[in-house]
Fold this sequence. Notes:
With about 180 residues, the chain is of the alpha+beta class. Helices cover about 35% and strands about 25% of the residues. It has an 8-stranded mixed β-sheet with strand order 7-1-6-5-4-3-2-8, sandwiched between helices. Helix 2 (about 40-50) runs antiparallel to helix 3 (about 60-70). The termini are far apart.
Amino acid sequence: MPWFCPPLRGVIPLDRLRVSRSLARTLRRRGYETTVDETFEAVVEGCREPRAGQDGTWISDDLAAAYARLHALGHAHSLEVWDGERLVGGIYGVLVGGVFCGESMFRRATDASKVALADLVARLLEAGAGLLEVQHLTPHLQSLGAIEIDRALYLGLLEELRDDNVRLLRDRLPASRLT
């Protein structure tokens, strides 16, 4: 598979996640709970669902299978957002030492992908990670605190953090703890 190393990379500094008032309200009131790696393939499938205005997805069958293999090997992880027993959102990516490379996220309920991101950031901080990479800066990610860094800084951070021993807490936790 190709690896892309663009001149600018989108990242969310773990100490700079922006939680809007509406997201804070969702965290307090919706009763969502979160888990890690409970339903990895279901999260990937949720991310493959076409979004409004899109005809397809960039996550091909081969790519989904490759991520499933990475998950089986312990490298790829998912964070799930639950409304009772219903999966309503999630995010998945690859954890390399202290760097989580986010691949995609989805929502089936209002703010559920943002809840997934906020919870992931909290779990990464708790585990001692140093960086959440989000590939490209989009207006949506920028509103959540994402910034762009240049290639040299990104590669330096990868080198610095790649050998850290970071393990995400997998317990089912209430999203309300994030407020």
